[in-house]
Design a protein that fits this description.
Layout: H1 13-23, H2 28-35, H3 39-46, H4 54-64, E1 91-94, E2 97-101, E3 111-118, E4 134-141, E5 144-148, E6 151-155, E7 160-164, E8 169-172, E9 179-186
Length: 211
């Protein structure tokens, strides 16, 4: 399984920043306040006049509460029928894990299955995930902890979870061995790409160890 070709990515970071900001109903002034950047700097980025540094992207991702990979959308032709050989899956690596596409990223409908491969300590981060649609989770191997609103679920291989994705949720691998998780997202809004929120920054929450 080869990592996704980063040279093939269509990187309109400014356009993606504008989309993400508008999706969350944030004005440029509000984003400037939350990120610590100037409105002029944000305007320059959105208009494509300057390229943001990695540190700037991390500030923006934290202010918008999205993973940094949300700025680098991989647009593929959408098809009504998608067949994927096991060795031809796209893979996007992040700290302590890998997002493995199962064809949903190229499917015309509103369903997107993918696999999360998590190293020990791999996590969605301290901030919860929120998106439209529904989420199905099945642990294939390893250990997994999912938190949905105030409920915490401890998985063993074969265990499943199904919930409305508008509920605040997050996950982590609390074990000492790699974890493999099948996730299926469905019923999300037409233009939304909810799997992007699961391509995590991988930053472990402070004080989460042993919780």
């Amino acid at each position: 399984m080869e990592p996704i070709d980063k040279d093939a990515l269509v990187m309109d970071v400014g356009g993606r920043l504008r989309e993400l900001r508008q999706e969350r109903g944030k004005s440029m002034r509000a984003l400037a306040r939350d990120s610590g950047l100037s409105t002029n700097a944000l305007s320059m980025i959105e208009r494509g006049r300057t390229s943001p540094s990695v540190s700037t992207l991390y500030k923006l991702s934290e202010a918008l509460e999205v993973p940094i990979t949300a700025f680098f959308r991989v647009e593929q032709p959408r098809q009504a029928i998608v067949f994927r050989k096991a060795g031809e899956r796209s893979c996007i690596e992040f700290p302590r894990g890998c997002w493995e596409g199962l064809g949903g990223e190229a499917f015309l409908g509103r369903v997107e299955p993918f696999m999360l491969n998590l190293e020990p300590g791999g996590t969605s981060g301290p901030q919860g995930l929120l998106h439209s649609g529904h989420e199905f989770v099945m642990l294939i191997e390893g250990q997994l902890e999912y938190e949905v609103e105030a409920q915490r679920f401890i998985f063993e291989p074969g265990d499943t979870l199904l919930f409305a994705s508008r509920l605040n949720h997050r996950w982590r691998n609390p074990g000492k061995t790699p974890t493999r998780v099948l996730i299926v997202l469905s019923g999300f809004e037409q233009e939304e790409r909810p799997s992007e929120y699961h391509r995590t920054s991988g930053k472990e929450e402070e004080g989460s160890e042993g919780s």
